[in-house]
Amino acid sequence: MGATYLRALASEYHHILDQLGRLYEESLSGPADAALTAELHSLGAAFAEHFAHERDLMDATRYPDAGRHEETHGLIRRFVDKLAAAAERRDDGLVRQEMPFLLHLVLDHRTVEDRRLDEFVSGMEAGAAVH
Length: 131
Description:
The protein is built from four helices and no strands. With 131 residues, it is mainly alpha-helical. The protein has a single domain, classed as Up-down Bundle (Four Helix Bundle (Hemerythrin (Met), subunit A)), CATH 1.20.120.
C-alpha cells in the first residue's frame, strides 16, 4: 500500500498546491467575491478528500503521530473555512491578510508532518524499525 499510496498523495498535494497558488495570487490582486468564495470552497473539498486519504494511510499503518498530524488537518480546514466566509462577506482586507498564513501553514504541513508520515511509511516498507 505504502509507496503507491504515497505517490498518489503527493500527486493530490501537487494539485492542491497549484490551486492554492492560484488562489493566493487572485486574493492579493482581485476582490473577495463569489468566484473566490467558490474557489475556496473547492479548495476545502480538495483538502477534505486528501486528508481522508491520509487518514486511511495512517489507520492502515497505525501511524503513531496520527493525532498530531490530524490536528494540523483541522487547523487547515478551519483556516480555509474562515477565508471562504471572509470572501463571502466581501472582506478583501481579511482575505489578503490571512491568505499568506494559509499558504505558509499548508507548506509547513507538507514539509514537516507529511514528511514524517512519508518517512514512517517508507521505513515500514523497507523493514526498518520505526518509532
